[in-house]
């Protein structure tokens, strides 16, 4: 157990402080950088910071959940989703820097909170653990959809990244469902939405 904790702590440090790697080519690889006004750039940076912070949270959630998942099928589902989340982390971080911004300073705070939530979901048992995964992915998918409307129309590169992430998240939700996710009670879904709202409002700015 102590070894596992050390490994997870090490993963946490790498999520927060080392550049993430991607195996797939970036979804915007063939697209030209557009001329954006200063205001458009600032807005795109803010939105991509929110998405990056969401991916930092996803890392922590899945780590917490994989730590406590009991059956190998649930663990495999979590690990597969987590692998693509590392790619999302890489794409959003690179895009923020290309636009001239910095990732949110609140990452470590959200990382710690999400790890605790992930461990808690895992301790409740596999069907709730997967239910939490499915609901998270649904909410993130809907949120990314809204960013496709909110991002500057000319910023085709950010849009291509967000669009691929949205498709991946919805696939993760379906996968959790297939592995036997339970449907979460409405108040829990509401609480998750509220927490996500706090994260999006704060990481857009700080
Ligand atoms: Fe993601
Ligand atoms: Fe996902």
TrEMBL record:
<feature type="binding site">
    <location>
        <position position="137"/>
    </location>
    <ligand>
        <name>Fe cation 2</name>
    </ligand>
</feature>
<dbReference type="Pfam" id="PF03232">
    <property type="entry name" value="COQ7"/>
</dbReference>
<keyword id="KW-0503">Monooxygenase</keyword>
<feature type="binding site">
    <location>
        <position position="172"/>
    </location>
    <ligand>
        <name>Fe cation 2</name>
    </ligand>
</feature>
<feature type="binding site">
    <location>
        <position position="88"/>
    </location>
    <ligand>
        <name>Fe cation 1</name>
    </ligand>
</feature>
<feature type="binding site">
    <location>
        <position position="169"/>
    </location>
    <ligand>
        <name>Fe cation 2</name>
    </ligand>
</feature>
<comment type="pathway">
    <text>Cofactor biosynthesis; ubiquinone biosynthesis.</text>
</comment>
<dbReference type="InterPro" id="IPR047809">
    <property type="entry name" value="COQ7_proteobact"/>
</dbReference>
<feature type="binding site">
    <location>
        <position position="85"/>
    </location>
    <ligand>
        <name>Fe cation 1</name>
    </ligand>
</feature>
<dbReference type="InterPro" id="IPR011566">
    <property type="entry name" value="Ubq_synth_Coq7"/>
</dbReference>
<dbReference type="InterPro" id="IPR009078">
    <property type="entry name" value="Ferritin-like_SF"/>
</dbReference>
<comment type="function">
    <text>Catalyzes the hydroxylation of 2-nonaprenyl-3-methyl-6-methoxy-1,4-benzoquinol during ubiquinone biosynthesis.</text>
</comment>
<feature type="binding site">
    <location>
        <position position="169"/>
    </location>
    <ligand>
        <name>Fe cation 1</name>
    </ligand>
</feature>
<keyword id="KW-0831">Ubiquinone biosynthesis</keyword>
<keyword id="KW-0408">Iron</keyword>
<dbReference type="GO" id="GO:0006744">
    <property type="term" value="P:ubiquinone biosynthetic process"/>
</dbReference>
<protein>
    <recommendedName>
        <fullName>3-demethoxyubiquinol 3-hydroxylase</fullName>
        <ecNumber>1.14.99.60</ecNumber>
    </recommendedName>
</protein>
<keyword id="KW-0472">Membrane</keyword>
<dbReference type="GO" id="GO:0005886">
    <property type="term" value="C:plasma membrane"/>
</dbReference>
<dbReference type="GO" id="GO:0046872">
    <property type="term" value="F:metal ion binding"/>
</dbReference>
<dbReference type="GO" id="GO:0008682">
    <property type="term" value="F:3-demethoxyubiquinol 3-hydroxylase activity"/>
</dbReference>
<keyword id="KW-0479">Metal-binding</keyword>
<dbReference type="InterPro" id="IPR012347">
    <property type="entry name" value="Ferritin-like"/>
</dbReference>
<keyword id="KW-1003">Cell membrane</keyword>
<keyword id="KW-0560">Oxidoreductase</keyword>
<feature type="binding site">
    <location>
        <position position="55"/>
    </location>
    <ligand>
        <name>Fe cation 1</name>
    </ligand>
</feature>
<comment type="similarity">
    <text>Belongs to the COQ7 family.</text>
</comment>
<feature type="binding site">
    <location>
        <position position="85"/>
    </location>
    <ligand>
        <name>Fe cation 2</name>
    </ligand>
</feature>
């Amino acid at each position: 157990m102590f070894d596992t904790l050390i490994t997870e702590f090490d993963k946490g440090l790498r999520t927060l402080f080392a550049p993430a790697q991607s195996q797939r080519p970036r979804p915007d690889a063939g697209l030209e950088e557009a001329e954006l006004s200063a205001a458009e750039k600032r807005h795109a940076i803010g939105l991509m910071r929110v998405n990056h912070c969401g991916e930092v949270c996803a890392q922590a959630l899945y780590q917490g959940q994989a730590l406590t998942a009991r059956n190998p099928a649930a663990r495999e589902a979590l690990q597969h989703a987590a692998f693509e989340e590392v790619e999302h982390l890489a794409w959003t971080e690179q895009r923020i820097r290309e636009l001239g911004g910095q990732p949110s300073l609140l990452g470590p705070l959200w990382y710690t909170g999400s790890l605790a939530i992930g461990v808690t979901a895992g301790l409740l048992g596999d069907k709730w653990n997967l239910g939490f995964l499915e609901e998270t992915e649904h909410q993130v998918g809907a949120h990314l959809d809204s960013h496709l409307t909110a991002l500057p129309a000319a910023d085709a590169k950010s849009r291509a990244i967000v669009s691929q992430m949205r498709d991946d998240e919805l696939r993760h939700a379906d996968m959790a469902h297939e592995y036997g996710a339970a449907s979460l009670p409405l108040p829990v879904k509401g609480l998750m939405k509220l927490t996500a709202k706090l994260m999006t409002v704060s990481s857009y700015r700080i």
